[in-house]
Amino acid sequence: MDFCKRLRPGAPVFGLLLIFLLQWLLLFWPRVPEWDAAFYYAYARSLAFDQDLHLDNDLLLAYPYVNEHFRGRHLDPIDEQRTVTGRVDAPFAIGTSLLWAVGLFLLRPLAHLLVESTGPLTGYEWPFVITINAASAVIGLLAFWVGYRLTRQVVGEKLAAAAALTLMFTTPMLYYQYREPIYSHAASALITGLVVLTWWRLRPQPLSWRNGAILGVLIGLAALVRWQHLIYLSLPAVAALWDWAVLPADKRGPAFKQAMIYGVAIGAAAFLVFLPQMGVWKLFYGSWVTVPQGDPYMVWTPTFFWPTLISPYRGLFTWMPIILFVFIGLFALSYRSPRTYIPLILILFLEIYVNSSTRDWFGGGGFGPRRFTSELVILLLGYAGFLQLLQTRWPGWGHRVLIGMLGFFLGWQQWILLRYGLREQLGGRTLSMWPDYRWQELSLGEFGQQIITRAGSLWTQPADFFIFPGSPLAHWQQTGGFPWSWLLLLGGVGLVAAATVQLIKMVIRKT
């Protein structure tokens, strides 16, 4: 009943659902995974079907469905791409695959009923592929919902909803929620959002080993999804250190002992949860701790700091300009409560540092500054802080007009990049990934000119501008029939997600 009340017409969560369904109709493309996604899926398929981690057969089963470039790069020379332990080189985090593995295992009975097959199921049949793609899209929606839940505590329901709806159109989540859902970005946004939300709610409570263990488990899970999420250990560490530093001198001794217990609990819990990833590294690369992409991949100095920020080829500020307003909002909020918001700002700076220390700072053949989607909830909170600043400076209808106009232009720019930048036609292109990670970029002036040239497509070719190839509406345009099976599987995933959320909330209340 409580969940149904939250879906009443006019409620912000209902608005999130409506926008989600609209985006799903326009964008969703449930294709067999390729490139990085193929390895995430191969891990999952190997665990769910073979109960091993020999990925050769799992990758080769995708051979009939993937494009020739992926086949030529990874599948045809698969025997040449071996690690020191004889395994297929698969340098990707295991966390998202563990989630997909559970889904694939549970789907097998249903797939037997839906698929006419004379042989054993492979895991690449349409019920598996569509459902896992849909699950990732729903996980992305949950990440926005978590961000909204946190943000409304700070700025109120209306501004939180406005910020969430704007972020749904203005980040690379659009691509990795609907066009390449089997990447790890949606799961990454959700788990880091849960880390921030949990840390936020535990902040008023005394430091304890129990609260530390809860945070440690979540941070460990986040690191399983993407390794750089270990930077989230700084969130409780900086906050605890700050709280200790402002105490009177006579109270620092007992507080230090309490903080040490708290910190050890966080580190121990995170380490235990992260152990499966270390086991996979040992199995594949012969070492418990490694950089699977090789030593040249990380330089550990922000060598690519400026390209990461402003390059027309997927720079953070050029491809996701909402980040400018996010920083303004976070600094405005930190003026009121520095102990709460400075640690969150630090996470963004650490993410910039890690990415600018990576030779593959541009994210390979991906879309936009995709690795920053991990900070989705922090971005949402910062943008909401900026909207609150607008509300303070221009009360009445003034701030509403500004919010609407700003959201429209930020969303318009992102949609242009999404629609016309998928084949690297905007800003530049990847020249090589290994061993030198070279790229080609246009000037900022040329990049802006491309944006302006494409901007008119909204008016001249609205159907082509909004309806993406492979989407449900494109399917309907081409065949005259709507893919109801996609919608039914999406609805099933949504119901499972809603039930899981309610179950978790009940457990939390009782404990």
Question: How would you summarize the topology of this molecule?
Answer:
Elements: H1 2-6, H2 12-27, H3 36-50, H4 56-60, H5 68-75, H6 95-114, H7 126-155, H8 157-167, H9 173-178, H10 185-202, H11 209-225, H12 234-245, H13 252-285, H14 305-310, H15 316-319, H16 322-336, H17 338-356, H18 376-393, H19 397-420, E1 428-430, E2 439-441, H20 444-455, H21 457-460, H22 462-466, H23 472-479, H24 484-510
Helix pairs in contact: 2-7, 2-8, 3-6, 6-7, 7-8, 7-10, 7-18, 7-24, 8-18, 10-11, 11-13, 12-13, 12-17, 16-17, 16-18, 18-19
Number of domains: 1
Q: Which stretches are poorly predicted, pLDDT < 50 over at least 5 residues?
A: 1-9
Q: How much strand content do the residues show?
A: under 5%
Report how far apart the termini are: 21 Å
Number of β-strand runs: 2
Gist?
The protein is 66% helix and 1% strand. The chain has helices at residues 2-6, 12-27, 36-50, 56-60, 68-75, 95-114, 126-155, 157-167, 173-178, 185-202, 209-225, 234-245, 252-285, 305-310, 316-319, 322-336, 338-356, 376-393, 397-420, 444-455, 457-460, 462-466, 472-479, 484-510, and strands at 428-430, 439-441.
Description:
With 511 residues, the protein is mainly alpha-helical. It has one domain. It is built from 24 helices and two strands. It has a two-stranded antiparallel sheet with strand order 1-2. Helix 2 packs antiparallel against helix 7 and helix 11 packs parallel to helix 13. It is globular and about 75 Å long.
What are the defining features of this structure?
511 residues, mainly alpha, two-stranded antiparallel ribbon, 24 helices, 2 strands, 66% helix, disordered N terminus
